[in-house]
Every structure is written in C-alpha cells, then in structure tokens.
Design goal:
By secondary structure, the chain is an alpha/beta fold. It folds into 2 domains: 163 residues, no CATH class; 227 residues, Rossmann fold, CATH 3.40.50. Helix content is 37%, strand content 11%. The protein has 15 helices and 12 strands. The strands form 3 sheets. Strands 1-2-3-4-7-8 form a 6-stranded mixed β-sheet, sandwiched between helices. It has a 4-stranded parallel β-sheet with strand order 10-9-11-12, with helices on both faces. Strands 5-6 form a two-stranded antiparallel sheet. The protein is globular, with a radius of gyration of 22 Å.
Length: 418
C-alpha cells in the first residue's frame, strides 16, 4: 500500500492507507520535514514489511483531522479495515485532561484515584473517527505504560495497549558514537542531573540538589526562583517545601548552568528552546556516580521511558528515576536491570506523587551521605548490571529489527506486561 500523509491541518498523522476523502501531499515546514524523516526511518525498522492498515501520529493533543468531515473512508477501505484491523500508533504520551475541569493545556497532573475522570484527547479523536466510519476492529498503541488499565473502560470501541513506538532509540541509536566510559576511578562527584525543558518536577529535583548537595554536574537554564517553583508545582503538597524554596532561590542565582552546550542568558520557563542538539556528555557522566533521570512526565500513574534513561545506561550509570510510578518496572519489562540490591527503589511503587518525590529526596540524601571512595566501591560492585544494560541496548537493536512490529516478541512482551 502507498505510504500517505493527512491534511495540512494535521501534519503529524501518517498512514499506509487513505483515512478519508481528501488526501494532501507532504508539506515542507521544518517540523513536517522532521516528521517525514522519522516516518522514513520507521519504514526501515520494525514497521518494515507491515502490510495491514496502520497509522502513526507523531504530534500531541487532538487529532483534529480525524474529527473532520473529510475523514470518511471509502467503502472499500472500510471493508479492509474491518477485516484486517486498523492500528493507530501514538508516538507521544497521551494528552490527558480531567473532565471535572476545563480542557485547557496539553497535559494534566493526576493520580490513580482520579482515573474515572481522566480522558485523553488522542483517544477522543480516534473514537470519534471509529464511530463516524463504523469501524469494528481498531487498536490503539500508546507509549504510556498502564494505559490499558486506566483508559480501556472509557473507550470500549477501541482496544488499547502499550507499545512504545516513539522509543525507537534502541533500534536507531548509533552506539559506537555514543560509547560511554566505564571506569569508576574517574568518579569525583556524586550526581549527574540534566534538565532541558522546564517541568515542575525537574525544578523540584534541581532545587533540592542545589540546597542539599555540593557534588554534582547539573544543567538548569531558567530564571526560576521560589515563586516560580510554587506557582508551577505539580501538587500543593510538595515535600520538604522549605528546602525547595531555599534551593530554588540559589538555583536562580546559579543559572544558566549547562554541561555540554554553552548558554549565556537565563530563559523564562515558557521559552521555546531550539538550541538542543544530539550530544553525549560522556565526560560529565564519567565524573559522577549516578544519574538522576528527570523524565518528561511525572505526576501521572502511566509510566513513560525516553532517550534520557537510554543515555544514562549508555554511559554505564546507575539511575535514580524521577518519573511516574512503575517506570523501573517498565524498564525491567524491556529486559534492563535496576539497582535495588544497592539502594532503595521503593519509590517506584509509590502512587502518591509527593510521597514518591520525598522517597527520591531520601535516596539522594542517602547517596550524598557516602564518601566518594564508598561510591566507587559500590560502582565496582554493580559493574555487571551496568555492563548488562549497556550491552542489552545493542542486543535490542537486533531484536527490534528481526520481525515487524505486529510479530515482534519484544513488543509483544511489553504489550502483555502493561
């Protein structure tokens, strides 16, 4: 089937089958060109030789084109989709909203106790499309771990599962160029903590680190004092709030901090950052015992893994995962090993976001209490885990490419672990 692209009003949606009456050629915007390159790459990875109808949505928020009057498929394509099934793969995590409040904003902070009130804009659009086209066999794959658990009952016309299409890094990353350094003798600091775009949980961690530790490599670009931290907090019940206030004020004076790309001026928290390039700051990793991985999302119960954890493993670092609950479980489902033999990872099972953050802070305190020599000894002891994780990335490159996504054992394992 011919590879196709939807209308210019929604340039993030690609498909191998026409999804409506009107179809448009490729646009030439910078964003569109980037998506087109990724779409091209996907055809050479685990989507190779997939012939059944499917679509990939690279963007976030509602899929507006699917809700339009043009998104009515032909009788022939309807017959094909209802016979073979139509699969939607979401590249980005779900854009959630709370039905009890306004739908403004792309994401909302929520916990498992809010689940009955939480919906996702992408799923809304796909469900409307299913209803408008009388489709009977539609599956939706999201990178959000446990998405089936929290969303399936709200969208009974869809079959929802977790398949992280957007996490293509094991299949496409150039491991040779990203080679890290496995030498504990180089460790002179305790923490590595990288932060790019602003997020409330990242502000909390960077502020806590600034106030309580003096041995770290940290990036922080923002003009962000205690007022900014409190005004943008993921919760009204922040742990260690006085420590965070003090740390936020210190952090504001130190900014901009950058480990690999020079930044001369502080940014506002809503400034768009367009200076990011693919880098591997392996020297700054090699100096530090562990990486504090501040994931893209935090205050929600659906896990998410991105390139951030991949970079830490490529550089042979143990990690403190600052993300949704279950992220370490998600890593283990992929076949990676974590570090509960050496320090407390119980934060991963804590559903309350503030309590989980407090557990993260306690782990930072525990590591901070160790001497560099003690941390070097610990690093040497966990070497087999660090080497396993690094080499498993290389193994994944082969396994993700050995079969199409519809038959791939790795993706099936993730799906059934959800």
């Amino acid at each position: 089937m011919e590879q196709r692209l939807t209308s210019p009003n929604d340039t993030g949606l690609y498909s191998n089958i026409s999804l409506g009456n009107i179809w448009f050629p490729n646009l030439k915007t910078q964003l569109q060109q980037g998506w087109a390159e990724v779409w091209k790459d996907l055809q050479q990875t685990y989507f190779k030789n997939v012939g059944n109808p499917y679509a990939v949505y690279f963007s976030v928020d509602r899929i507006k084109w699917l809700e339009s009057s043009n998104a009515i498929i032909s009788d022939r394509n309807r017959e094909i989709c209802n016979k073979k099934g139509l699969k939607f793969y979401l590249w980005e995590p779900l854009s959630t909203y709370d039905t009890r409040v306004d739908k403004d904003g792309i994401y909302t902070s929520w916990s498992n106790t809010d689940a009955e009130h939480i919906r996702a804009r992408e799923l809304d659009s796909i469900q409307q499309y299913v209803q408008n086209n009388r489709l009977t066999k539609v599956e939706v794959y999201s990178p959000s771990y446990n998405s089936k658990k929290y969303f399936q009952t709200h969208y009974p016309e869809l079959e929802i599962d977790c398949t992280p299409v957007g996490w293509i890094y094991p299949a496409t990353i150039n491991v040779d160029e990203q080679e890290g350094v496995h030498d504990g003798n180089l460790i002179t600091k305790k923490f590595w903590c990288g932060n790019w775009r602003y997020a409330s949980h990242r502000h909390c961690v960077a502020s806590y680190l600034t106030e309580t530790a003096n041995s770290y490599n940290l990036s922080w670009l923002y003009n962000s004092n205690e007022k900014v931290l409190i005004d943008n907090a993921y919760s009204e019940n922040l742990p260690c709030v006085d420590v965070l206030r003090n740390g936020a004020n210190k952090l504001a004076k130190l900014a901009p901090l950058s480990m690999d790309i020079p930044v001369k001026e502080k940014l506002n928290i809503d400034d768009y950052i367009d200076i990011h390039i693919d880098t591997n700051p392996k020297d700054s990793y090699a100096e530090c015992f562990c990486a504090i991985v501040n994931e893209t999302r935090y205050a929600e119960p659906t896990g998410l893994l991105t390139e951030k954890i991949m970079n830490a493993m490529l550089n042979y670092r143990p990690v403190i995962m600052v993300g949704p609950p279950g992220n370490l479980e998600y890593m283990r489902a992929w076949g990676f090993m974590t570090f509960s033999d050496w320090f407390d990872e119980s934060y991963d099972t804590e559903q309350d976001h503030s309590k989980r953050m407090k557990k993260v802070f306690e782990l930072i305190d525990w590591i901070n209490s160790k001497t560099i020599d003690e941390l070097k000894d610990m690093y040497a002891d966990m070497s087999y885990v660090l080497i396993h994780n690094k080499t498993w990335i290389e193994e994944l490159q082969e396994r993700l490419l050995e079969a199409p996504i519809t038959k791939n054992k790795i993706y099936k394992r993730i799906r059934y672990a959800d």
